Amino acid sequence: MNSMEVELRTHAEESDWRVTLRVRLDRSETTALFMDGDSLISWPTEGLRPTGAPIDRSSMFLSEIVARGEGLELVYGTRELAERVSQILAHQLRTALPQ
């Protein structure tokens, strides 16, 4: 039974644009992810705003995104950049998620 859920949103927040990615996998899908090899998901840093995290990153393993309750949240200065990042993440997810 596949219960995979993917939420990828781009939305305005104050003067910035936020890209939110949440991925939920059931136990068998998580096992398949590790058996097939965890994928590194990356995003452009151009226009990326600081989020208060100790280290600003440009990539994260898919298993880490799955494990984080809040998922991945990126903040960009323009709508165009945020939409581009959303497309890049969507493309990477299509090839990284277990089928």
Structure report:
34% of the residues lie in helices and 29% in strands. It has helices at 27-36, 62-67, 79-96; strands at 5-13, 16-24, 40-42, 59-61, 72-76. A three-stranded antiparallel beta sheet has the order 1-2-5. The protein starts with a strand and ends with a helix. The model has no long low-confidence stretch (mean pLDDT 88).
Spatial strand order of the main sheet: 1-2-5
**Tally of individual helices:** 3
End-to-end Cα distance: 11 Å
Instruction: Please provide the ordered H/E string of secondary-structure elements.
Output: EEHEEHEH
- Backbone structural class: alpha+beta
User: How many domains is the backbone divided into?
Assistant: 1
Fraction of residues in helices?
25-40%
Low-confidence stretches: none
Q: How can the largest sheet be summarized?
A: 3 strands, antiparallel
- The count of β-strands is 5
Q: What percentage of the residues does DSSP assign to strands (E)?
A: 25-35%
Rg over C-alpha atoms, rounded to the nearest angstrom: 14 Å
Mean pLDDT across all residues, rounded?
A: 88
Which term fits the overall shape?
A: elongated
Features:
single chain; 99 residues; alpha+beta; three-stranded antiparallel β-sheet; two-stranded antiparallel sheet; 5 strands
